[in-house]
Write a structure and sequence with these properties.
two-stranded antiparallel ribbon, 58% helix, 2 strands
């Protein structure tokens, strides 16, 4: 079932229709709104005439940076798990004296 979500940006509310596959569509919209608000807060002491587009671009860059950091962490975690699993299997094999037996004919 399609769901509708709303997001408020710069005092204006936008409503979107999210497809069935968008289980967490409202959470995504809320995350974007928080990122925009965070950029606005950081720039509050700066010049008053900062364009809204610049704020949106900065928020998008922050989100992209967070995504790339998470992606890097994921790859590093996966590599660590892969390496540790391989080491664990080798340790188990050594301690169990598992040897590869050649296939012998039954004759």
């Amino acid at each position: 079932m399609d769901q509708f979500l709303s997001i408020e940006i710069f005092g204006q509310t936008y409503r979107f229709k999210a497809g069935e596959e968008s289980v967490n569509a409202q959470a995504v919209a809320d995350f974007l709104a928080r990122e925009i608000h965070e950029v606005e807060s950081k720039l509050a002491d700066g010049p008053a005439n900062i364009e809204k587009k610049a704020i949106l671009v900065l928020a998008a860059l922050n989100i992209s940076n967070k995504y790339l950091d998470l992606e890097k962490s994921y790859v590093e975690l996966f590599e660590t798990i892969e390496s540790r699993s391989s080491n664990l299997i080798s340790t188990i094999d050594r301690n169990c004296n598992i040897k590869e037996n050649p296939i012998r004919p039954l004759l």
